[in-house]
């Protein structure tokens, strides 16, 4: 809301409303600055804000540089596959951006740099359909053993974190009957707790020890082949116990690779599956590049509603921390709840 909106709501003169607002800003109770939400189209968000400027001349002056950049982006899009026209359009856009913002048009590549480092990028959906043979699904049965281990891992981590957070809560509360969330949050930084990384390392090491007992590889062996049916009982013995993680820990996103000569070999069953990564407590489909390009986003939202029927608390991720978040990688399955 604008200062004028606030003044009208409170039935205050604009000068007095501004005085009160500046006092709140001074106490750091509110933020009074232009914040453009991180998303796939920040230009639209910025335009929506600038078009609300009441003074026509000020509004026109604020929109003019944005329109220069919008026209530059449209010129890049219009260049299509014409390499020469595309290079010229990109160069012109970068030159205009640097002149208008006095900021470099590209971020240097580095270990903490977001994936998209330039002003614009081409994002498309490939016009192809991948079909998996039932034979591939049949060979995925060992994943259930991995999920059993993940349930143990997330439950042990949650148990450890709850104990640390409870200790912090008791310290912050002292003799009072309760305390506020902000005080507890600061006591637990870096979230979820200062002990979170050492505890994750400790529990991860225990996970590896348990898997080593299950696999029982001979000394110096480079390859061990086991049947998931043969080791299922041992997996359940090692990873049995109560399951009490947190809401997101129900999500497990495996990256499975297929090793085969060609599609026909897969149809014959002549292939192997390799588990590349197992993303725990993360729904990789929720990344903004998948959500933005999904042909039916409402289906993703509906599935999220089924997973989380009530409201849930989600962090607002700062643009500058961690630096690898970007318009394409940020969690994007957020709802009004």
Describe it:
With 337 residues, the protein is mostly helical. It is 51% helix and 5% strand. It has helices at residues 3-10, 14-26, 42-50, 56-79, 83-101, 134-138, 143-173, 181-188, 196-215, 228-239, 263-268, 288-293, 297-307; strands at 252-259, 272-280. The chain has a two-stranded antiparallel ribbon with strand order 1-2. The longest helix has 31 residues, at 143-173.
Number of distinct helices = 13
Radius of gyration from the CA trace? 27 Å
- Broad structural category: mainly alpha
**Helix amount, in percent?**
40-55%
Summarize the helix and strand pattern as letters. HHHHHHHHHHEHEHH
Strand content: 5-15%
Overall pLDDT metric = 90
Let me know the largest β-sheet: 2 strands, antiparallel
**What is the CA–CA distance across the termini?**
21 Å
Name the shape in a single word: globular
- List the uncertain runs: none
Q: Please give the number of β-strands.
A: 2
Strand adjacency order, main sheet: 1-2
